[in-house]
Design goal:
Length: 306
Amino acid sequence: MTDRDWLAAAFEEHRGHLRAVAYRLLGSASDADDAVQDTWLRLTGADSSGVENLGGWLTTVVARVSLNMLRSRRNEEPVGGAWPETAEPGAGATDVTRAAGAGLAGDPENEAVLADSVGLALLVVLDTLSPAERLAFVLHDLFAIPFAEVAAVLGRSPEATRQLASRARRRVRGAPSPDRAADLARQREVTEAFLAASRGGDLSALVALLDSDVTLAADAAAVPSGRPALLRGADAVSRGALASSPRAGQSRLALVDGSVGIVFAPAGRLQVVLVLTVSPARRITAIQVIADPGRLRRLRLALLPD
């Protein structure tokens, strides 16, 4: 076995844990995969001969990568300074890595496990935190990583990091009520059914999901004519959805400004977002189709696992 083969095998042992950390930090399965891949590239580009605690070193790197991705979303400056040295893996992080990742490391491809363990309601709250608050809370409160190690990732003092986690903790405790969590679950159920019916070209299933007075409003960038469009009624909206069924095959569920919606982003390039309003009776009462680049940039998005 070559040194690279050994390194790859060792990395795979930690992949599930790294992906769990990245998912909780980023709220997106695809972004988490990107962060893990970036971590692997940084490992292969480093001198790993001095790494005594590979799990701790990798956790630090994936956290730093994720923090930069969070800051990029908000047009903030990325983390400055050097990346973790191989001689500074983080004391005690191996045990933390094993404990925190034990429930996921054996099945890293199971995105449903990640979604259930985080929960839509928590993802919504985490998305309201600053990148530094989110990282401090996730690493310390969800993964029991000591504040000294979290502080090293953030480039702040342990006391300042403790305060960040405390602020985040207060927001988490004060947000979504059981009613809000149930509302998000209802939104996901109906939106998932709408996307499946659109993909399958099932007109009767679409009509069954739509309120009789449903409206669909599309901005000018989403319409071939270049003018905003408005459809009214279940029949017109369902036929409009069928006309977009080829696009539905490449669409995904996502959190859109804290509610469940649909994004169309072929090859990772965001083009269209659907925002659905779902009634307590599990009927879609309104759909917004957003394609204007300016509006898309202002949306807070997080892909949901399938």
